[in-house]
Amino acid sequence: MNITGHGTGSIYLTILAALILSILPMPSLLDYHRPDWLALVVMYWVIALPHRVNLGTAWVAGLLLDILLGSTLGIHALSMAIMAYVAALQFQKIRNFSVWQQALVMGCISLLGQLTVFWAEHLFGVATLNYRLFWASLSTLLLWPLTFVTLRKLRRRFRIR
């Protein structure tokens, strides 16, 4: 049973949930460890269903994140597109890795995305390099197995193809 036709709505609902998690307030002590929720969800769908979720989806999701965060328009969109490109380029290899090997790849892709955001913000003169980049990538790496299992169960439950 699908939530909507062929699961497209389910995919978009998970991306919406990731956007909401990305803007939820957190205690300042934990905010430095905030995982890149949107990257986790979009990267899962890019690897699982590359014919359904692609660079365009990643770009739009990143643009929505830019709007929600009030950042310079296009910075997170560029970052999400680069991360989706890297994942889509190697999706067949990544699929064959164990979950923890995938987690390492996702941590590296997340770090690439964080560095892309830093670089783009640096061009506009609003960036400072801090260790937050590394903690966010580490928490993204650690949450990949849970995200993978949860979204795979959702994909199988609703037969999203």
TrEMBL record:
Q: Note whether Heme occurs among the keywords.
A: no
Q: What protein name applies here?
A: Rod shape-determining protein MreD
Q: What is the lineage of its organism?
A: Bacteria, Pseudomonadati, Pseudomonadota, Gammaproteobacteria, Aeromonadales
Q: What topology in the membrane does the UniProt record assign? A: Multi-pass membrane protein
Going by the UniProt record, its keywords in alphabetical order are: Cell inner membrane, Cell membrane, Cell shape, Membrane, Transmembrane, Transmembrane helix
The record's function comment reads: Involved in formation of the rod shape of the cell. May also contribute to regulation of formation of penicillin-binding proteins.
Q: Which domain of life is it from?
A: Bacteria
- Residues crossing the lipid bilayer are 12-30, 59-87, 99-120, 132-151
UniProt-listed NCBIfam families: shape_MreD
Xref: InterPro entries: Cell_shape_determining_MreD (IPR007227), MreD_proteobac (IPR026034)
The family classification in the record reads:
Belongs to the MreD family.
Compartments annotated for it: namely: Cell inner membrane; Cell membrane
